[in-house]
Amino acid sequence: MGTDKETKINIMNNIKIESQILIRRCKLNDLEGVIEVNERELPEDYPYFFYKSILDNFPEAFLVATDKDNKVIGYVMWRVEQIPSMDSLKYVNKGHLVSIAVSEEYRRRGIGTTLLSNSISAVKKHKITELVLEVRVSNYIAIKLYEKFNFKMNSAKKNYYRDGENAYYMVRNADTN
Ligand SMILES: CC(C)(COP(=O)(O)OP(=O)(O)OC[C@H]1O[C@@H](n2cnc3c(N)ncnc32)[C@H](O)[C@@H]1OP(=O)(O)O)[C@@H](O)C(=O)NCCC(=O)NCCS
After folding, report:
1. Alpha-carbon torsion 119, 121, 126, 131, what sign?
2. pTM
3. Which residue, by CA, sits nearest to atom 22 of ligand 1?
4. Is residue 36 part of a domain?
5. CB atoms near residue 103 (< 10 Å)
6. Structural domain containing residue 47
7. Which residue CA neighbors atom 10 of ligand 1 most closely?
8. CB atoms within 10 A of CB 23
């Protein structure tokens, strides 16, 4: 069981699911499990220090889903970036989705939705004006998930991925529900 600081949700209460799955904040010793899920489920991989720096800097929006044995079966991580404001000389914060993945055998049970909704609430605490992400143009399923959260396609980024695939840049106002 986790601590009060963790986001603890028994998905069974909110979303169709048949087994106990915990969504909580990522801890240092979850990182190996996060990396395992990432390397299995996504072509983009990152060095350990990258995950560690996201965890150090934006821990509240780095969530994991774990199974009954406390094994990581999904994760989501965000970073906060400063961009020049459109209407003043100040900088404003935008939340950038770094990565989200759920182990294949646990998909379609609402885990991705729960990770995203709870991490969005957490990243918004950084006084974010907008939320942004990139997604492979072929990743129909992830695009559907983001559209559920009112992300809209803003533009395409050519050759964004190492293998040359283009990305859609999707954006949402932080205040949108
Ligand atoms: C995208 C991903 C995280 C979704 O996780 P999940 O736990 O299966 O998501 P959910 O069960 O909450 O489903 C969320 C929504 O995604 C869409 N979706 C999920 N699986 C789908 C499928 N097989 N076909 C069509 N839409 C699908 C639906 O809109 C769904 O909402 P609904 O159940 O109300 O219809 C998961 O598919 C994944 O890990 N994919 C590989 C990694 C990846 O592509 N990450 C995104 C990189 S940008």
Report:
1. positive
2. 0.91
3. 141
4. yes
5. 19
6. 9-130
7. 110
8. 25
Question: Do the domain assignments include residue 39?
Answer: yes
**Nearest CA owner, ligand 1 atom 7:** 112
Which tokens is 38 given? Answer: 């990432």
142 CA distance to ligand 1 middle (Å): 5
- How many domains does the structure of the chain reveal? 1
Query: Could you identify the atom of ligand 1 that is nearest to the CA of residue 139?
Result: 44
Cα of 125 vs centre of ligand 1, distance in Å, is 25
Round to whole Å and give the CA distance between 139 and 62: 22
Residue 136, domain member (yes or no): no
User: Any idea what the CATH number is for the domain that residue 58 is in?
Assistant: 3.40.630.30
Q: How many residues does the chain have?
A: 177
Structure tokens at 153: 């396609």
What are the tens digits of pLDDT across the range 53-81? 999 999 999 999 999 899 999 999 999 99
> Whose alpha carbon is nearest atom 24 of ligand 1?
141
Q: Answer whether residue 109 is part of any domain.
A: yes
pLDDT tens-digit readout, 126-161: 999 999 999 999 999 999 999 999 999 999 999 999
